[in-house]
Design brief:
Number of domains: 2
Distance between the termini: 23 Å
Radius of gyration: 16 Å
Largest sheet: none
Helix content: over 70%
Number of strands: 0
Number of helices: 9
Order of helices and strands: HHHHHHHHH
Shape: globular
Length: about 160
């Protein structure tokens, strides 16, 4: 993640405001809020401002994933991108048992615990592809984003020393 953040800052971030940089990084799959909070700390944004832009950036893609991912994957399969679509679907299938075991709380923890391969993007993907109740999935994902914000803010800004 550190290498990506360094690349982003040299390639793109120099021409953007710190707030917009953090917002954009927080929207990127696999990097998401975790990378955004690390970046906000490196850019010396005040904690409250970094958390605001990270959470906002992490939330923005969620409705699009929940409502349109199946159509996008279908379109990709029909337009010579079936390998990518299959890879995305396999990622969801691989993570489904982790979420199924505990339902609502499992999805929240999956999104909220900052481990590689987890987060709002993957949680939304699993929820959409396996027809979870969208209202329940949305609340669970939002709670997971809040949990991730607390954990990563603590780690990035060193609240506890």
């Amino acid at each position: 993640m550190q290498a990506f953040i360094e690349w982003f800052m040299t390639a793109v971030g120099r021409s953007l405001s710190p707030q917009l940089s953090v917002f954009i990084v927080s929207m990127i799959p696999l990097v998401e809020e975790r990378g955004g909070l690390i970046l906000s700390r490196l850019l010396n944004l005040p904690m409250w401002e970094g958390v605001f832009w990270c959470v906002l950036g992490n939330i923005l893609p969620i409705p699009f994933i929940l409502f349109f991912i199946e159509r996008l994957l279908h379109w990709m399969s029909e337009h010579h991108m079936s390998r990518i679509a299959s890879w995305i679907e396999q990622k969801a299938v691989k993570n489904k048992p982790k979420i199924d075991r505990y339902g609502f709380w499992g999805l929240m923890l999956f999104v909220g615990i900052p481990l590689p391969g987890t987060g709002a993007w993957t949680g939304s993907l699993v929820a959409a592809l396996f027809d979870m109740d969208l209202k329940q999935a949305s609340v669970s994902i939002l709670l997971g984003i809040a949990l991730a914000a607390v954990i990563m803010t603590t780690l990035s800004y060193g609240i506890f020393g």
